Structures are given as structure tokens and as C-alpha cells.
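> call design_seq(struct)
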């Protein structure tokens, strides 16, 4: 794996990958070896995991080719991601972000979390039907998510340099 690729292609990171219909999709990296990258396409069931050669033209840094694809097309094999553990983890992250500057360690990780994990999980959450005993937790998460969005909108002026940094560097 090239050192440049090591920056954006790691287990748990989101990348862009072409599905078996040759469309660019958001994918989560599941495994990386010296010769291949194993990914799971967003909203596809685990049985559809794909493996690409490390130098494949069918993989790219996150949002390089999927920028216009804000949400994957609904497919019959959609795999819901709701879990109370994920919800609590994300709720803690956005609660911390509300109390801080909203920025993570760098622009790359900020993009991975906000445009990746948080966006995709929230999209999945709002299209799922959580169990009755989880509804209060989902509502509390949603309230804090709205507070997070409000703070983000209020601080956009300070975030524009990071936006432009991302526009100039596709690997972010």
C-alpha cells in the first residue's frame, strides 16, 4: 500500500468504492492487506462485501466521487445499522462537540466523523424503527443533534478555512 493511500484507507474509515452496478458508493473499510482492500457498501447487507486490489481504480478517498451522493439509493438488501451502543457512542461524541469547537484532531477525521459515521448513522436511524424502550434515547439524541447543527451553523464562519482546505485536498 502506498503511503498516500495509508492516510485514507484504513479499517473503520469510509472511502468511495464502485459497487457491482459500477456506481460510486460510500463504503466502510473492513480489512486492508498489502494487496487488497475489503469494504462494505453503505446500506448493503454484509453478504455483499467487496474486495478490491489495492491499486484499483474502483476505490478512492472518501467523498472524492460520491460528493453528490448524499444518501445511497434504497436497495432491497439494505442493512439497518441501529444499535443502542452506536447511538450512545454518537450521542457522547456530539455532546462533547457541542461543548467544544466542533473540530476533531484534523480536517480528515472531522470529515470522516461528520460526513461519514454521524451522517450515515443518522440517516439509518431515522429510517429504522427502534424498539419502544429506545425511543426516549433516540429523542434525546435527536435533540442534541439539533443543538449540534445549530452550533455548527453559528460557527460556520470559523469553519470555512477547513472547508476550503478539504476542497483543495481530496484526501481529506
Amino acid at each position: 500500500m502506498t503511503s498516500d493511500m495509508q492516510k485514507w484507507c484504513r479499517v473503520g474509515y469510509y472511502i468511495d468504492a464502485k459497487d457491482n452496478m459500477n456506481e460510486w458508493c460510500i463504503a466502510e473499510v473492513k480489512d486492508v492487506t498489502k494487496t487488497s482492500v475489503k469494504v462494505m457498501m453503505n446500506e448493503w447487507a454484509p453478504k455483499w462485501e467487496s474486495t478490491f486490489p489495492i491499486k484499483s481504480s474502483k476505490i478512492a478517498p472518501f467523498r472524492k466521487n460520491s460528493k453528490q451522493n448524499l444518501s445511497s439509493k434504497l436497495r432491497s438488501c439494505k442493512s439497518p445499522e441501529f444499535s443502542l451502543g452506536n447511538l450512545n457512542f454518537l450521542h457522547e461524541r456530539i455532546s462533547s462537540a457541542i461543548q467544544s469547537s466542533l473540530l476533531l484532531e484534523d480536517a480528515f477525521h472531522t470529515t470522516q466523523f461528520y460526513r461519514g459515521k454521524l451522517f450515515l448513522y443518522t440517516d439509518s436511524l431515522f429510517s429504522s424503527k427502534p424498539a419502544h424502550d429506545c425511543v426516549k434515547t433516540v429523542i434525546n439524541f435527536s435533540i442534541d443533534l439539533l443543538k449540534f447543527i445549530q452550533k455548527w451553523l453559528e460557527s460556520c464562519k470559523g469553519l470555512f478555512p477547513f472547508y476550503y482546505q478539504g476542497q483543495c485536498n481530496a484526501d481529506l
